[in-house]
Amino acid sequence: MTALGGRVADEERGGVSRPNRVAMLEKLADLDAQHGIAVAGGGEKYVERHHARGKLTARERIELLVDPGSAFLELSPLAGWGSDFTVGASVVTGIGVVEGVECMISANDPTVKGGASNPWTVRKIFRASQIAEENNLPTISLVESGGADLPTQKEIFIPGGKLFRDLTRASARRQPTIALVFGNSTAGGAYVPGMSDYTVFVRGGAKVFLGGPPLVKMATGEESDDESLGGAEMHARVSGLADYLAEDEHDAIRIGRRIVVRLNRGRTAGVPVLSSGFSAVAAGEKLGNHRSAGGSRRGSFADPDADPEGLLDLIPTDLKEPFDPREVIVRIVDGASEHNGRPFDEFKPLYGTSLVTGWAEIHGRPIGILANAQGVLFSEEAQKATQFIQLANSSDTPLLFLHNTTGYMVGKDYEQGGIIKHGAMMINAVSNSTVPHLSVIMGASYGAGNYGMNGRAFDPRFLFTWPSAKSAVMGPAQLAGVLSIVARAAAEAKGQAYDEEGDAGMRAMVEQMVEEQSLPYALSGMLYDDGVIDPRDTRTVLAICLSVIENAPIKGAEGFGVFRP
């Protein structure tokens, strides 16, 4: 496992300047810094205080829980970015392998306001629950939270009930739920262990009650202490809420791993692993290009035919400049071998050339790929995508969408040629496709092109962005220009002189605002993706996702909506 600094290549090789690489490396350095903020949690002072109490941090608990050397795919690490709350939203969520079983792991971060939940915490946990449901994953909750952030309770209380609903429905679906309680689990939080299938309480640490001693005193006048009211021993011996009583945090994690062994979920041998150590992929620790130890469920596979390092050279600093997505594909899919013959079998290569479609494998698992080539989607591209999506569903093959699109083409000729109905046909196919979808936003993802390419609103199983990504209703200059044209027409209709100086200021302000709102950190902060990743990690991240989705049956759609001719 190597950190970012160990993977940064020279900015110039062989005397040839690589401006795209230089720009991407700068973005990656900033991304590393942003992830560092999330990893820091509440900061050094509160981490030291936590350790002084003999407690492990959230990530230390996860590191001990997951199998040695296995990858931990952290999700939504930048949740809350740009808000008044600490980046990461006081909870760590992600997918890890525990005793060979892929599990959704959620760990409160007690170094951030005692692990109290804010509005972004709730949304982040909801997203983790959705992923667990869609992919049939057991959930392990590492609990230590003071409950809701009271100043923002109005944004938490009503939607927060979904957390408990999700736990009970997971149990009904036979998706096991396990709660390891290390500290406070107060008020509504007490229902997390209360609604979990299995509970482990740490002696002297776990405190689980609907109301603590002060609240009980206020409500009933009763005098009580933490242990008699909600301590681990009381719940193990008296209330029965604790299934297992752990001697310390390490013992709780050991018991949690043994619970997973007894779930009878089978082992997932094809999960990518690291050469050593623990990796929070999205939190700045880089996976590199490692093979799965023990091979793939699908058999052997070859490394990509082109070096993934070259991905840093591909994305132009100006997203208006096109790039060939085949250069991305050849760096993330399995290389040629006796098993697969060619790394990428392109479908309809001479038709609708602004969209590249075809079949490949990643870590031995089949995938259908749709990748934007020249940015704009025309009618031909929309019809080609529709057919390809139907074919993927007929063969039960997952789909990968690689975004770099400014949207569907506009103009009189294109409107008359049916661009609306053809774009709607593609969106219909995406909406009603039932094979798992994965999305990576590499560059631009504007307008309805974001929808047709399976953006967040269309519930891809996983969606990641590169640091070069931008997503909005349209590009900043286009949006500012449209507003200017509308304002100018309104002034003319009223017979008023148009304020050119004011127009220039308005356009500059709008362009800056849209630019800031469409950047990957802002989108990731609002949980519109599952994380911003280093392009070189794309293959490994996708391999983990493809392994995860195999925990649930993969079955294509048997029918689609009405396609307008």
Automatic annotation (TrEMBL):
* Pfam families in UniProt: Carboxyl_trans
The protein's superkingdom reads Bacteria
Q: Which residues form the CoA carboxyltransferase C-terminal domain?
A: 303-550
The UniProt entry, under SUPFAM superfamilies, shows: ClpP/crotonase
Domain CoA carboxyltransferase N-terminal intervals: 24-275
Question: Which molecular-function annotations from GO does this UniProt entry contain?
Answer: ligase activity
What name goes with this protein? Answer: Acyl-CoA carboxylase subunit beta
Source organism per UniProt? Nocardioides ganghwensis
